[in-house]
User: Fold this.
Amino acid sequence: MSEPGPDRLVLPGELLGTAEEFVPGRGTYEDSGRIFAALLGHPKIDPSDRAIRVDALNAIPRLSENDTVYGRVDEIKTAMAIVTIVSAASTGRGVPGSPEGTIHISKAKDGYTETLADEFAPGDVVLARVIQSHPTVKLTTAPAYLGVVAARCQVCHALLAKHGAELECPRCGHRERRKTAAEYGQAFVPATSTGPADGEPR
Assistant:
């Protein structure tokens, strides 16, 4: 049987190959030496071990290492920031259960960080990369393209605007520091309970 193309869509019960050709992987099942799709999706082959799997067409997002996600900063501790992961950045789809992740002080930015209070504040929306997905989720915002993408003034709660190396409140003039992402104020960010809503001016 020919190998599946990158855009091929298979139906549950569709023949994918034989046990002599492939090792059955996630989203497949084997019956009498033949491998079938167990769900609607796209078949993929791992060249390292010839395992064939089916990636669900509408799969529930799962966090994996190197995924980029949006999160809401809930708490700042001495050595880490506690973040509720809101959605996958690539798709904008919510992550089931809104899992909690942490940004260690050493992963907040490149170079020395004296205090996390200078990099984040509760309510900030951050763009972060997953560096560990199990057993706990660990994140980094160290690269220049990662960091805070939306923040509110700690005095009057208006959305802060980028002003040089700082953020400035257009309502009260208060200035604050953050570890901002390269596209602060330009990126689409998801609605959060304390952050900016979709479509709100940034």
Observations:
- The chain has no helices and 15 strands.
- The chain has two domains: 15-56, 68-176.
- The domain at 15-56 is CATH 2.40.50.100 (OB fold (Dihydrolipoamide Acetyltransferase, E2P)).
- Confidence is low (pLDDT under 50) at residues 193-202.
